[in-house]
UniProtKB/TrEMBL annotation:
It comes from Dictyobacter kobayashii. It comes from the Bacteria. Keywords: Membrane, Transferase, Transmembrane, Transmembrane helix. This is Bacterial sugar transferase domain-containing protein. Belongs to the bacterial sugar transferase family. InterPro entries: Bact_transf (IPR003362), EPS_sugar_tfrase (IPR017475). Residues 300-482 form the Bacterial sugar transferase domain. It is a multi-pass membrane protein.
């Protein structure tokens, strides 16, 4: 829980502690730990290889394993491969480093990319046999992956230990900032120790805030000078105050972490804050840069094609059984075509297995709800296992949808939601998906408020599209299907 200080802050005996380690120190710990784990594992595997007399080393180097020369060659090529993997997976990003699952998943993706590049380098520079290189790298991977995963989990546990929770001050006191911080406290992760707000021109009633207003820029300067702040969170409106910049620059020079409140909200909650037009402009600019990434575009296209082909084979195999079950339970068509709004606002016909009775909407389109009476008995099973969505592999193969992306809405709901939530149209900047970040993080939306929450998740995905995030979504989707958590 975040600690609230309702008493004068400047009494020394009330302070929990002084600042210990800066963000720079933690980055050095993480990078140093990764390096030590990598070197130790490589040395261990090469030592075993040299003592067991593997003939594969003769094939790779055209000579027996010869001390430091061979070790140095392996280290150099492994280092180059690691640099390539860092560029692809970004394992040191704060969003990944502060989570058990994301941290371990990110480092595993980085190691997988590293091993692939390493294998390519070995085969290219030494003209060795591919199977010989694999016979050396695979034992290394078997040892490396669990040790790296354990080390990353220990690192996250150390960060969340109460002695290392950062002393936090928020610059800018207003109701929006307070609501965002309160939501972050309810996420369930260990939160920083909140000391209070700094606001030079505060006119809000302190009783409406969850934490006290400590003072103005002079007090902030004193706190930074005394090393009593680990983390500074700046509300969006405070960046227009020119008197604040010297204090922020001094804080950064002394190793204090500096975050804007929207960035901290994104990093912790996995949602994009709906603030103003400027932030949405930055969102679309970021999404455009992602779309221009050739490597990511190839990954997504390959993923769609592979899933489409495999999914089509599964669909053809299950179609006779599911068709009989659907018809016997509720006579009528097996498939259900529904118009949806897709990429750049183009409408297309989305294909599903029919899970509701015929003519389920006599009065027009309505929100689906929990325990909807229109759903048939077989339809409940199809929805729980998400098999009703399987025919959409045809939409994916036709290029109308992607495997991962925001769920497409019906045209009437799209118009209504765009009127209530102007940012809703930003979802049309990417292809709609069969699954997505919003689908695995939030339940079905049956109201405008729930749609607003899912919109935040969709906008976060649009802004942070990456290989690691896609893998995370796929793993969460597999878990949801296995646990039959559909509605």
């Amino acid at each position: 829980m975040i600690v609230s200080r309702s008493v004068p802050f400047y009494d020394d005996h009330l302070l929990p502690r002084k600042r210990r380690w800066t963000a720079r120190h933690w980055r050095w710990v993480l990078a140093g730990g990764d390096t030590l784990v990598f070197l130790f594992t490589l040395f261990y595997v090469l030592f075993l290889a040299s003592t067991s007399g593997w003939n594969e080393f003769r094939i790779v180097y055209d000579q027996p394993l010869a001390g430091w020369r061979s070790f140095f060659c392996w280290e150099v090529l492994g280092g180059l491969a690691w640099l390539v993997s860092l560029r692809l997976a970004r394992p040191y990003a704060r969003f990944h480093a502060l989570s058990y699952c994301r941290g371990v998943l990110t480092i595993c993706c980085s190691l997988g990319a590293m091993l692939a590049c390493w294998l390519l380098f070995l085969y290219t520079f030494f003209q060795g046999d591919l199977f010989a290189c694999l016979s050396i790298l695979l034992p290394f991977a078997v040892v490396l992956f669990p040790i790296f995963g354990l080390w990353r989990a220990c690192y996250v546990s150390l960060l969340k230990f109460f002695l290392f929770q950062p002393l936090t001050v928020v610059v800018g006191a207003d109701s929006l900032s307070d609501a965002m911080l309160t939501e972050l406290c309810q996420i369930g992760q260990p939160a920083p120790i909140m000391l209070g707000y700094i606001d030079e021109y505060s006119d809000i009633d302190p009783a409406l805030l969850s934490w006290p207003v400590l003072g103005g820029n002079v007090l902030l300067h004193s706190l930074v000078q005394a090393d009593l702040v680990d983390l500074l969170v700046v509300a969006p409106d405070c960046y227009v105050d020119p008197t604040l910049y010297p204090v922020l620059m001094q804080a950064m020079a002394q190793g204090v972490q500096l975050f804007s409140l929207p960035d901290l909200y994104e990093c912790t909650s996995g949602k994009y804050p709906l603030l103003n037009g400027t932030s949405l402009h930055m969102l679309m600019e970021q999404a455009h840069r992602r779309a221009l990434s050739v490597g990511y575009h190839c990954w997504r296209r390959l993923l769609d094609l592979c899933f489409g082909v495999v999914g089509l084979a599964v669909l053809l195999g299950l179609l006779p059984l599911l068709a009989v079950c659907i018809y016997l339970d509720s006579p009528g068509p097996v498939f259900y075509w529904q118009e949806r709004v897709g990429y750049h606002g183009r409408c297309f016909r989305l294909l599903k297995f029919r899970s509701m009775r015929v003519n389920a909407e006599p009065c027009g389109a309505t929100w689906a709800s929990q325990g909807d009476a229109r759903v048939t008995r077989v339809g409940r099973v199809l929805r729980a296992t998400h098999l009703d969505e399987l025919p959409q592999v045809i939409n994916i193969l036709q290029g109308e949808m992607s495997l991962i992306g925001p769920r497409p809405e019906r045209p009437m709901f799209e118009l209504q939601l765009e009127q209530i939530l102007p940012a809703f149209c930003c979802r049309l900047g990417v292809k709609p998906g069969l699954t997505g970040w919003a689908q695995v993080k939030a339940p079905y939306a049956s109201s405008y408020a729930a749609a607003a929450v899912k919109l935040q998740y969709d906008l976060y995905y649009i802004r942070h599209q990456s290989f690691v995030l896609d893998i995370s979504i796929l793993l969460k989707t597999i878990v949801a299907v296995l646990w039959c958590s559909g509605r």
